[in-house]
């Protein structure tokens, strides 16, 4: 049995599909909610209802579990308080419950650039979560990933929605030259699933990214082409855009971006181009080949639908 935290999220759903394809029994930890969980269709998944900081609930979820894939995080909410509660304290609760249950492996997906001294809350929280895992007695594998994209993500999909509602001009932070290394979600999910099998990966931390270094401007241009939304790109002060995003987080029920996104874009964060082939024997997908999901959709309607709870 594999317990997946964050199994209803964008990456979590892809990981559950990959685990199911490999004949793993999967249980996912889901916090209590009035909304129906977004789980992969047609895949048998056990559900354990508990918040990550509920010690008793997390211990109950560990019954019969052999391995843990830890994907849960609070970045989507955009508030630093959530990062401390979920990413940091939640990880400590999880590893203690896993240790007591005799779990034989934990795989944790972190971010490139995670550092305890980082000025950026999301990267600092991921580093503290990494530290909690390393200090436990659990055999672990940590995968530090670049930005992940795919259908339903909070990256390319958010850009497509923002492009859709932009009136002819689209602001990009700074000069748009921040280097990123986007990772196709199925590639990362495959790496996570394979990490459960390889004994040589125990106690290791891997930095991985996609097969190419791209600037933010290049990524936005790819998204524009795929989504059919041509706009003039305007270099804009990141501080100004961060302020607008901060305000939108407090106005919109489901904002496309949070200020944590600007934290990640504050500097280039990349790994070796051959990291994924060398470590996992997997040839990663080129971004331009995987953006078909952005076409033939009304992104203005998509944006409005998310704000009223239809998507």
Give an overview in words:
The protein is of the alpha/beta class. Helices cover 40% and strands 17% of the residues. The longest helix has 21 residues, at 80-100. It starts with a strand and ends with a helix.
In short, what is this structure?
By secondary structure, the chain is an alpha/beta fold.
CATH-defined topology of the largest domain? Rossmann fold
* Shape descriptor: globular
Q: Main β-sheet: number of strands, strand sense, barrel status? A: 7 strands, parallel
Please trace the helix and strand order, writing H or E for each element. Answer: EHEEHEHEHEEHEEEHEEHEHHHH
Structural class: alpha/beta
CATH class wording of the largest domain: Alpha Beta
- Give the tally of structural domains: 2
Query: Fraction of residues in helices?
Result: 25-40%
What is the beta-strand fraction? Answer: 15-25%
Write the layout of secondary structure elements.
Elements: E1 2-5, H1 10-21, E2 26-30, E3 46-49, H2 55-61, E4 67-70, H3 80-100, E5 105-111, H4 121-135, E6 140-145, E7 148-149, H5 156-165, E8 169-173, E9 179-180, E10 183-184, H6 185-195, E11 204-208, E12 214-215, H7 216-227, E13 232-236, H8 238-251, H9 259-264, H10 275-280, H11 299-307
Parallel strand pairs: 1-2, 1-4, 2-3, 4-5, 5-6, 6-11, 7-10, 8-13
Antiparallel strand pairs: 9-12
């Amino acid at each position: 049995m594999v317990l997946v935290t964050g199994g209803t999220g964008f990456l979590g759903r892809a990981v559950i599909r990959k685990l199911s394809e490999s004949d793993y029994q999967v249980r996912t930890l889901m916090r209590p909610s009035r909304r129906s969980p977004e789980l992969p269709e047609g895949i048998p998944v056990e559900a354990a209802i508990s918040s990550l900081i509920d010690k008793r609930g997390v211990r109950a979820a560990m019954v019969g579990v052999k391995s843990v894939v830890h994907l849960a995080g609070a970045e989507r909410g955009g508030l630093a308080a959530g990062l401390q509660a979920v990413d940091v304290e939640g990880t400590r609760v999880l590893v203690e419950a896993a240790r007591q249950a005799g779990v034989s492996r934990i795989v944790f997906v972190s971010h490139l650039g995670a550092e305890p001294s980082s000025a950026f809350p999301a990267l600092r929280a991921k580093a503290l979560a990494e530290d909690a895992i390393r200090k436990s007695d659990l055999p672990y594998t940590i995968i530090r990933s670049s930005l992940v994209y795919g259908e339903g993500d909070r990256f390319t999909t958010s850009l497509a929605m923002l492009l859709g509602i932009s009136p002819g001009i689209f602001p990009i932070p700074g000069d748009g030259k921040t280097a990123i290394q986007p990772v196709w979600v199925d590639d990362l999910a495959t790496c996570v699933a394979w990490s459960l099998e390889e004994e040589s990966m125990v106690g290791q931390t891997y930095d991985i990214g996609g097969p190419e270094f791209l600037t933010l401007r290049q990524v936005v241009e790819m998204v524009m082409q795929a989504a059919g939304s041509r706009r003039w790109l305007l270099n804009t002060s990141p501080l100004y855009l961060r302020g607008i995003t901060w305000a939108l987080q407090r106005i919109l029920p489901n904002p496309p971006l949070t200020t944590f996104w600007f934290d990640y874009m504050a500097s280039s964060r990349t790994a070796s181009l051959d990291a994924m082939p060398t470590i996992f024997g997997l040839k990663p997908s080129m971004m331009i080949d995987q953006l078909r999901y952005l076409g033939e959709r009304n992104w203005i309607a998509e944006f409005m639908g998310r704000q009223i709870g239809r998507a």
